[in-house]
Amino acid sequence: MLSPESETDLAEAVRAAKGPLAIRGGGTRRHAPEGCDPLETRGLSGIRLYEPGALTMVAGAGTPLAEIEAMLEAEGQRLAFEPMDHRGLLDTEGVPTIGGVVAGNVSGPRRIQVGACRDFMLGVRFVDGTGAVVKNGGRVMKNVTGYDLVKLMTGSHGTLGVLSEVAFKVLPATEMTGVLLLEGLDDDGAVKALGAALGSPFEVTGAAHLQKGTDGAPVTMIRLEGFEKSVAYRAGKLQELLSAFGDFTVETDPERTTAGWRYIRDVVPFHNREGDVWRFSVKPSDAPVIGARLGAAELIYDWGGGLIWALSERGADLRAAAAPFEGHATLVRAGAETRARLPVFQPEPAPLAAISARLRTRFDPRGILNPGLMG
Fold first, then answer.
1. pLDDT tens per residue, range 190-242
2. Using an 8 Å Cβ cutoff, are 31 and 334 in contact?
3. Residue 140 pLDDT level (bands cut at 50, 70, 90)
4. How far is 276 from 317, CA to CA, in rounded Å?
5. Residue 355 lies in a domain
6. Which of 51, 162, 292, 324 sits in a 20 to 30 Å window from 8, CA-based?
7. Cβ pair 70, 170 in contact under 8 A
8. In whole angstroms, how large is the CA radius of gyration of the chain?
9. CATH number at residue 242
10. How far apart are CA 37 and CA 343, in angstroms?
11. Would 370 be classed as within a structural domain?
């Protein structure tokens, strides 16, 4: 295990590598390719700069997510992109890190309103496959020098470079959260209700549907955030707008609303259960049809139907079932045999695959950074 304690150590470790490296943040996910020497960035930890007035933070890639969230909470702020904790779903240990979040572009339920992790990135420092240190972007949103490279690194899963430092924008925390709840809708009705809510002017920040809630019945969830009077007004208006679907109730207890959206964010219904887990990013209007085709044991819809989590029997190729539709299917959890047979990520069309290959050749000419992970 290579565990550099500084960016200089990281660069030297990459330069000196005699074979492929499996890049790891805090060790909470299982996507690292087999047969590689592990290189862990957890030692590159520490908040380097935090300016609450400017809503910006700079941190080492190995900084624990919990440390960042605690500092933000103390200043009445939060991460915008609401990253999930993979440990329960994947039965792993380790510590989620900000570098792992950025490398995976991990973005939770609030993405439908504010965007993805990628949209809040300001700058990155990373070590490419030759061992060279690269700096791109800045510490404020107006600095756009090389901005596309910042976005390129976000979601590259360590295949183009090993992140050492990230700069990102944060948001103020909200005063209140209200959640509209309705049991009993089928998938089609739920996605239509979520679409109506998202198409309204009432600033929905979460829109999800569980085929099986905690009591076993289907439950549809719509989240509102903001000042207390605003949340109450918008909740009332949404109840009127969605009355044709049923009588939504409103939950405002902070502990219950936080737990409810953590339940969605971390895909808690699939924890400690047999089967493979797939993640589909699709057109929301296609979601009910795709869901029906998957033949999965259970589905969770997030992003108004644009994100489908599916629990399936072991070894099933759900990507093939969804093939006629536009979208991306990721095999999130499966046994070794299935992962050897099916790629983790959606195979790219030939023109895009050619561009991706040229990028990897440019940033990692030796092909040592997470080889084979993304095609």
1. 999 999 999 999 999 999 999 999 999 999 999 999 999 999 999 999 999 99
2. no
3. low
4. 10
5. no
6. 51
7. no
8. 21
9. 3.30.70.260
10. 21
11. no
**How many degrees, rounded to 5, is the angle at CA 227 between CA 223 and CA 230?**
70
Q: What is the DSSP letter of 208?
A: E
Structural domain for 153, as ranges: 7-172
Q: What is the C-alpha separation between 369 and 271, in angstroms, rounded?
A: 30
- The whole-angstrom distance between residue 300's C-alpha and the CA centroid of its chain comes to 15
If asked whether residues 64 and 155 sit together in one domain, one would say yes
H-helix or E-strand spanning residue 330: strand 327-333
Residue 137 corresponds to which amino acid?
Answer: G
Nearest-angstrom CA–CA distance, 118 and 111: 11
Q: Which residues, other chains included, contact 340 with Cβ-Cβ below 8 Å and sequence gap of 6+?
A: none
**What's the chain's length in residues?**
375
Total structural domains in the chain? 3
Token pair for 54: 């400017």
Amino acid occupying residue 279: R
Assess whether 193 and 162 both reside in one domain: no
* Strand-pair category, 21-24 with 37-40: parallel
At how many degrees (to 10) do helices 187-198 and 228-241 cross? 130
Indicate whether 87 and 160 sit together in one domain: yes
Per-residue model confidence as pLDDT tens digits over 146-169: 447 899 999 999 999 999 999 999
User: Would you give the distance in Å from CA 242 to the centre of its chain?
Assistant: 29
The single residue listed with the structure tokens 């995976």 is: 104
